[in-house]
Amino acid sequence: MARNRIYYPEGKIQKGLYTIGKAWMFEDGIEYIGSYHTYSTGEVYSQSSYIRNVSRKLIPYRDVSQFEIKSIFDYDGLPKKETLKEYFSPYYNKTQPQESDYFQGFFDRYFVKSLSTNIIFEVSLKDYQKVQKENFQKTIITWKLTGPINDTNLEPGVEDTNRRLVNLAEREITGIVNYITNFTEYKKI
Q1: Within 10 Å of residue 58's Cβ, how many Cβ atoms?
Q2: pTM of the predicted model over 0.70
Q3: Which ranges constitute the DSSP H helices of 50-175?
Q4: What's the pLDDT tens digit per position in 40-73?
């Protein structure tokens, strides 16, 4: 097994130590008797100094002669896994525009897609900020509220603009073009 670091300064290594037994053992449970050395990182290896492909990692000794204790030893020897983050599940929340949004002519809508279920839904800003990228695709669409329904020479239309925005959002959430189909939703008449 490789050491944690490639290089250790001499001041960080304690060489030439010796055990007569019951102090260290190999990771496979075999007791070690002989020369060993330690590092400031807490690592302990066989041999009085590190010899590549010869020195082996040592762990504190445990009597593994009894089956029950051996099972505990085997369990303790399993590789450590990354601690799982708490999973946050957002709630469906169809945000309604406020009067101030109509005055501006647009408002933000927040969408997420669960990577485990492929379900797309609209959420609040608060939930949008909490979802983890490991579990969800997410996007914000700045939804047009006012203006003509279709594009004119003077102004982009509500329906045409929102359709373009949803098509752009498809890059971030695949399938959103099938989820949002009413491009004049919330338009004030």
Answers
A1: 21
A2: no
A3: 67-76, 99-104, 125-130, 158-169
A4: 888 999 999 988 889 999 999 887 665 555 555 5
Burial of 141 (0-12, 13-18, 19+ CB in 10 A): buried
Q: Are 60 and 22 in contact (CB under 8 A)?
A: no
pLDDT, tens digit, 9 for 90 and up, residues 81-93: 666 567 778 888 8
Helix (H, G, I), strand (E, B) or coil at 112: strand
CA distance 31 to 19: 10
Contact 47, 54 (CB under 8 A): yes
CA distance 2 to 145: 61
Phi, psi (deg, nearest 5) at residue 121:
-155, 160
